[in-house]
Amino acid sequence: MVARGEIARFWSLESLHMVSADGGTESSALVDDNGSEEDFSYEDLCQANPRYLQPGGEQLAINELIGDGSVVCAEALWDHVTMDDQELGFKAGDVIQVLEASNKDWWWGRNEDKEAWFPASFVRLRVNQEELLENSSGAHGEEPDEDAGHGHHRHSENKHQMRTNVIREIMNTERVYIKHLKDICEGYIRQCRKHTGMFTVAQLATIFGNIEDIYKFQRKFLKDLEKQYNKEEPHLSEIGSCFLQHQEGFAIYSEYCNNHPGACLELAQLMKQGKYRHFFEACRLLQQMIDIAIDGFLLTPVQKICKYPLQLAELLKYTTQEHSDYNNIKAAYEAMKNVACLINERKRKLESIDKIARWQVSIVGWEGLDILDRSSELIHSGELTKITKQGKSQQRTFFLFDHQLVSCKKDLLRRDMLYYKGRMDMDEMELVDLEDGRDKDWNLSVKNAFKLVSKSSDEVHLFCAKKQEDKARWLQACADERRRVQEDQEMGMEISENQKKLAMLNAQKAGQGKSKGYSGCPLAPPHQGLHPLHQRHVTVPTSVPQQQVFALAEPKRKPSLFWHTFNKLTPFRK
Fold first, then answer.
1. Cβ distance 203 to 188 under 8 Å?
2. Which string of b and e fits 43-77 if b means at least 16 CB within 10 Å?
3. Which of 536, 537, 540, 544 is nearest to 525 (CA)?
4. E strands along 352-433, which residues?
5. I need a surface site. Which of 192, 308, 475, 564 has the fewest CB within 10 A?
6. C-alpha distance from residue 41 to each of 46, 214, 297 (Å)
7. For the segment 278-290, what is each residue's pLDDT rounded down to a tens digit?
8. Is this prediction's pTM over 0.70?
């Protein structure tokens, strides 16, 4: 019988490597008082932080724990959008139970919906893995036992240990991250600049972005973290103020993440040539870097900024309200969550543009600029009746994107076929809600109607919906479109020209030889609610697991279902 006070058994992935038998903890800081790194060798870091640096070490630890019957949980760093039945879709922050981690790229896991494969690089393992043995004896009608007081004391000690585990993870991952940034700057960028015949200044700016600025910023951030870290009693550390002090500085990641898709494309082009593959591998070996390709290293800042809110959320969970750092940790969590949300929002936009491009290719008689020249997201769609000043009605299907409203007409025989009929510039339009009855300007009786009136000319468009609720959705969608445009401008949310061209090129190739039809149209759900920015998730399903520019973040191939079903204990084959 388990004592009532022992309501939870916890184990820590951190404790597998970071705590020695005599209670000793991790290595000393990587930065000195001046903010510069001490000369730690790769071997020193591996000995101090094997979980973070040694390839495959984390997998072995996970599978050992799973084999022992422990429950291993991970949290999603960002959304994973998939239409593949063998893949596990999830949203940023979702919890996934890891069931198999023998393959380094794809793990087998379970969420509330099903069991399936998911990309390992999309998740962060929880530091404290808790397994509830009994909620409470009282839940079964049992009387409190006399060990309850001792159990409460043990539970308090466990919470201190759990907070210690999270603090240690934050500190050690930060130190290893600094090591990775240093390797990129000194191992790759420095060598590339020496070889002017292979790289232009513009190419290096595209590939590496502002990662040197990130390196400089992170060194200062780690220096302040080290000052607030209590080595003797880590659970008493007060690191929340560090995140708040530097929260504006983390905005530097926005530029890097915006540049990252272009970096992937540029690097992919270079890697088609053997001399560049050999050059980057030689740089890695010369710098004694871990066995990860350059694309993996360049992804680390994107992953890092998304890990912060998950780490702080777990830290907040094990920080009591009486703790001196509670309020700062809570504020830091909200601040870093907003930063990471912007990153996830951009990724979500990138995942939607391929389908928007395929939608345009399916439209018969498209005229003018590509939809992606100005838009990157479908806000709303549906049927409306457009009325001319002469009183003539036209039944049309409208698609509201950011910046523009596209009008199409359905084919009389093939209802899945759409003909292009025009578009309106939403930046130049003003929405006017109309009451039911006679419109004085048009001298017409209208119901469920609204207008779009040009701000710079006498152009006016009158629309009528079938039902009052349909009109309400269109009014809300138009308001949301304006809000989205403003938010995108404020946070510099832009899709690169190269990415737009690539999406259209892929769509045109895919559409060759196929009959027209909009079965792949990115229709939004009829009752789709547009949430505030920090609550947004994927609104447009995509048939590809990951946008091509983020292919470096997601493995290109997942293990066969056969090997999981019939040979779980054998390493997966490629």
1. no
2. eebeebbebbbbeebbbebbbebbeeeeebbbbbb
3. 540
4. 378-387, 393-401, 404-410, 418-425, 429-433
5. 475
6. 9, 22, 18
7. 999 999 999 999 8
8. no
Torsion over CA of 396, 399, 402 and 403, rounded to 10 degrees? -30
Read off the tokens for 125.
Answer: 């393992």
Helices then strands, counting H and E runs in the chain, come out as 16, 16
Contact 111, 88 (CB under 8 A): yes
Sequence-distant (≥ 6) Cβ neighbours of residue 564 within 8 angstroms: 100, 108, 572
The answer, yes or no, to whether residue 107 has pLDDT greater than 60, is yes
Residue 198 has pLDDT above 90, yes or no: yes
| Structure-token match 């152009």, residue found | 459
Q: Which two tokens stand for residue 38?
A: 């001490």
pLDDT for residue 32 is more than 60: no
Round to whole Å and give the CA distance between 28 and 48. 9
Query: What percentage of the chain reaches a pLDDT higher than 70?
Result: 72
CB 318 within 8 A of CB 159: yes
For residue 131, the cross-strand partners are 9
Please tell me the predicted confidence (pLDDT) of residue 152.
52
Residue 80, token pair as written in the block:
């994973």
Residues 424, 107: Cα–Cα separation, whole Å: 46
Three-class DSSP category at 211 = helix
Tokens, residue 348: 């979500």
**How many CA atoms, within 13 angstroms, populate the side-chain half-sphere of residue 540?**
29
CB burial readout 419-429, b (16+ within 10 A) else e: ebbebbebeeb
Give the Cα-Cα-Cα angle 229, 232, 234 (nearest 5 degrees). Answer: 45
Find, among 403, 408, 407, the residue nearest to 425 by Cα. Answer: 403
Residues whose CB falls within 8 Å of the CB of residue 60, separated by 6 or more in sequence, listed in order: none
Do residues 433 and 450 touch, judged by C-beta distance below 8 A?
Answer: yes
The token pair that represents 534 in the structure block: 């920090």
What is the pLDDT averaged over residues 12-26?
36
Instruction: Determine the pLDDT at residue 150.
Output: 53
Question: Does an H or E element contain 464, and which?
Answer: strand 460-464
d(CA 109, CA 101): 9
- Please enumerate in sequence order all residues whose Cβ is within 8 A of that of 135, keeping only pairs 6 or more positions apart, or say none: 7
- Taking the C-alpha atoms of residue 514 and residue 417, their distance in angstroms, rounded to an integer, is 12
Q: 397-411 pLDDT, tens per residue?
A: 999 999 999 999 998
CA dist 347 and 119 (Å) reads 15
Q: Rounded distance, CA 107 to CA 86, Å?
A: 12
Tens-place pLDDT, residues 152-171: 555 556 878 889 999 999 99
| Beta-sheet pairing, 429-433 with 418-425 | unpaired
- Report the pLDDT averaged over residues 428-437: 94
